[in-house]
């Protein structure tokens, strides 16, 4: 996500941060490059001008030019201004307590990912301990109700739907049902159109009035850049939004929507969609996104993802296996799945400070992980637990079963044996950790 602007700003930061002395010309040149990067990211011209003017004013002060580490001071200014641009701090959903029904109204144009986002939000709230109900009030788009039903079933959350064609009546009865069944949050999926029109706005105004929503959130497609900001502004002027969810954020290489929406509308970005799975909805933290954009990583989010994917007791058991050299292909397969649960390798690399640019990301092959998983799944349980019994005939059978070549099976077994030895050394000698991490980087490519 945000690869294009991140690459450009990371290069600018790298060039100036290490300088022992900087001049006004250094600063003006860097700010000029930042301005160009923001414009190429499809950020609003008004937002870019404000950002550049504020950064210039502070960076050209005596405090920076005479600082002990002027380059780093300049980077800090750019970081702080980016955080302000993105929204200063995380804005939580304003929901009532568990004994009172809270209502979230989702709006958006067709194609913005509104229905999928409704299900993702429900799953996220369920995981945080709430009891959400989806209300299917998109009665315009064909199969919208059916799509929401399927997603609700996949996510294990409740749904209210009916054959009624009047969205106000559906919402009214849906909220009554939610109260009777003791749900604490209702998420209403409303109808969208291909473009903003009077009919859609009037319908949503009626639904909003009937729902008395606590949160009115616009789902906007991050890939549309500046258009997403214009759409957010139009919805806010007529319906008074409380926030924005940017869908398809993982596919947004430019970042114009994220950089502009708060400044233009005054409404915070509350969540971002980071993938197609129901668990791929993340809270939006301006500071964490700013550090990612500047190539500084996002260790906090990385640790949070690791905590979700890795159980402490299982991690201790794995460490014991590594120390005893009893780490098997079954354990190897389990680690594949845990890494996948945390997200794509590309997204994880972005969170590691200094990794972006240091690793050749073009060499990262996630298909290789899937191929290796298929190979391991084609093995019998005894083979997974003792890879040494896998001779030539077994390798041919495994290759046929996994749709790969014997060469691929041999390559996996060699890599596994090498990783196993490295992990054993690391368990006994902390100095081997750096060598192991370097090797892991190679095996991931």
Give me some keywords for this one:
445 residues, alpha/beta, Four Helix Bundle (Hemerythrin (Met), subunit A), Rossmann fold, 434 Repressor (Amino-terminal Domain), 3 domains, 8-stranded mixed β-sheet, 21 helices, 8 strands, 58% helix
Provide structural commentary.
The chain folds into three domains: 3-86, SRP54, nucleotide-binding domain (Four Helix Bundle (Hemerythrin (Met), subunit A)); 102-293, Rossmann fold (3-Layer(aba) Sandwich); 300-443, Orthogonal Bundle (434 Repressor (Amino-terminal Domain)), CATH 1.10.260. The chain is an alpha/beta fold and 445 residues long. Helices cover 58% and strands 9% of the residues. The protein has an eight-stranded mixed sheet, with helices on both faces. The protein is built from 21 helices and eight strands. The protein has helices spanning 3-17, 24-40, 45-59, 62-65, 70-86, 114-127, 144-155, 167-180, 198-211, 226-239, 256-265, 286-293, 299-309, 312-323, 329-342, 345-351, 366-377, 381-385, 392-402, 406-428, 433-443, and strands at residues 102-107, 132-137, 158-160, 185-190, 215-221, 243-247, 269-273, 281-283. It starts with a helix and ends with a helix.
């Amino acid at each position: 996500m945000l690869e294009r602007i991140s690459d450009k700003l990371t290069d600018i930061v790298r060039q100036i941060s290490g300088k022992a002395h900087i001049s006004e010309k250094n600063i003006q040149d860097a700010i000029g490059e930042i301005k160009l990067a923001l414009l190429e990211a499809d950020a609003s011209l008004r937002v870019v001008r404000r950002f550049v003017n504020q950064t210039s004013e502070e960076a050209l002060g005596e405090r920076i030019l005479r600082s002990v580490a002027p380059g780093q001071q300049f980077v800090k200014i750019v970081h702080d201004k980016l955080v302000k641009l993105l929204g200063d701090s995380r804005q939580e959903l304003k929901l009532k307590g568990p004994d009172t029904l809270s209502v979230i109204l989702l709006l958006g144009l067709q194609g913005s990912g509104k229905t999928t986002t409704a299900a993702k939000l429900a799953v996220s709230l369920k995981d945080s301990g709430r009891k959400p109900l989806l209300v299917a009030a998109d009665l315009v788009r064909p199969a919208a109700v059916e799509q929401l039903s399927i997603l609700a079933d996949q996510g294990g959350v409740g749904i209210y739907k009916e054959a009624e064609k009047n969205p106000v009546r559906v919402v009214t009865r849906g909220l009554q049902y939610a109260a009777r069944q003791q749900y604490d949050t209702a998420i209403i999926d409303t109808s969208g159109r291909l473009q903003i029109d009077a009919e859609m706005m009037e319908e949503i105004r009626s639904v909003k009035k009937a729902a008395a929503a606590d949160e009115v959130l616009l789902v906007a497609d991050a890939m549309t850049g500046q258009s997403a900001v214009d759409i957010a502004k139009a919805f806010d002027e007529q319906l008074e939004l409380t926030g924005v969810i940017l869908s398809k954020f993982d596919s947004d290489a430019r970042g114009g929507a994220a950089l502009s929406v708060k400044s233009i509308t005054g409404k915070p970005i509350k969540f971002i969609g980071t993938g197609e799975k129901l668990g791929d909805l993340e809270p939006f933290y301006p500071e964490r996104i700013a550090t990612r954009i500047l190539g500084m990583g996002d260790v906090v989010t990385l640790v949070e993802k690791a905590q979700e994917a890795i159980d402490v007791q299982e991690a201790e058991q794995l460490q014991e296996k590594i120390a005893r050299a009893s780490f098997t292909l079954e354990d190897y397969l389990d680690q594949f799945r845990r890494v996948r649960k945390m997200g794509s390798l590309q997204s994880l690399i972005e969170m590691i400070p200094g990794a972006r640019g240091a690793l050749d990301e073009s060499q990262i092959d996630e298909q290789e992980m899937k191929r290796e998983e298929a190979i391991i799944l084609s093995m019998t349980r005894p083979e997974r637990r003792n890879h040494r019994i896998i001779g030539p005939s077994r390798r041919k059978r495994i290759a046929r079963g996994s749709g790969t070549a014997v060469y691929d099976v041999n390559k996996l077994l060699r890599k596994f044996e090498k990783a196993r030895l490295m992990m054993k050394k690391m368990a006994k000698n902390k100095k081997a950790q750096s060598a192991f991490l370097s090797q892991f980087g190679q095996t991931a490519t």
